Amino acid sequence: MPTTTAVRELPHPAPEEIRLETVLHALSDPIRLRIATALGAHGEGDGAGAACSQVELPVSASTATHHFRVLREAGVIKQCYRGTAKISCLRRADLEARFPGLLDAVLRAAAS
Amino acid sequence: MPTTTAVRELPHPAPEEIRLETVLHALSDPIRLRIATALGAHGEGDGAGAACSQVELPVSASTATHHFRVLREAGVIKQCYRGTAKISCLRRADLEARFPGLLDAVLRAAAS
């Protein structure tokens, strides 16, 4: 009997479904802004990204999970499982294609 | 007996008090985004700006007033009385100095 491997895929909006208001709202929280800034330093694509636990936040694990989810559902970050770790990275290319200059302007402002 | 003229000044954050999270939150609402876009077409400075009633919105006058206030308190717009009319305009220069490229990126994204 074949073994079934459960592939846990998390829901993400398609690039064309990413909405400006939702992205701005996702980034309007200081904790989520801090997550985006931290992930901005971790690169994008295969092998890049960071586990939630690698982003230092002054909130409980469940609150952090909530904030990561808001960012994912808004289309700001991509989350996938690598082994048992949930890895997150910014959707830089998707956001840049959809809203040119926006993410960079926000990350620059957050860093200043 | 001298006449006292009541000068009605509305509270605005000083440029250095404008916070990124608050600006992003103010712009994360479709009605407020529409107001910002409309005011973007009305210029800035003396004689520029638009009365609230000049910005067509699918909400009641009191709801519109609320949204203008959120934008003002966030530092996105300036509101002043000209006669009996409350005139609003974007704080383009203040926002650009504080968060370079941000407002333009948001307005461009909203227009696309």
Explain how this protein is built.
The structure is a homodimer of 112-residue chains. Chain A has 112 residues and is α+β, with helices and mostly antiparallel strands. The first copy, chain A, has one domain (12-102): Winged helix-like DNA-binding domain superfamily/Winged helix DNA-binding domain (Arc Repressor Mutant, subunit A). Helix content of chain A is 45%, strand content 12%. Chain A has five helices and three strands, in the order H-H-E-H-E-E-H-H. In chain A, strands 1-3-2 form a three-stranded antiparallel sheet. In chain A, a hairpin with a 2-residue loop joins strand 2 (77-82) and strand 3. In chain A, helix 1 (20-27) packs antiparallel against helix 3. The longest helix of chain A has 14 residues, at 61-74. The relative contact order of chain A is 0.22. Chains A and B meet through helix 1 and helix 5 of A and helix 1 and helix 5 of B. Chains A, B: It comes from Streptomyces qinglanensis. Chains A, B: One of its GO terms (molecular function) is DNA-binding transcription factor activity. Chains A, B: Residues 12-110 form the HTH arsR-type domain.
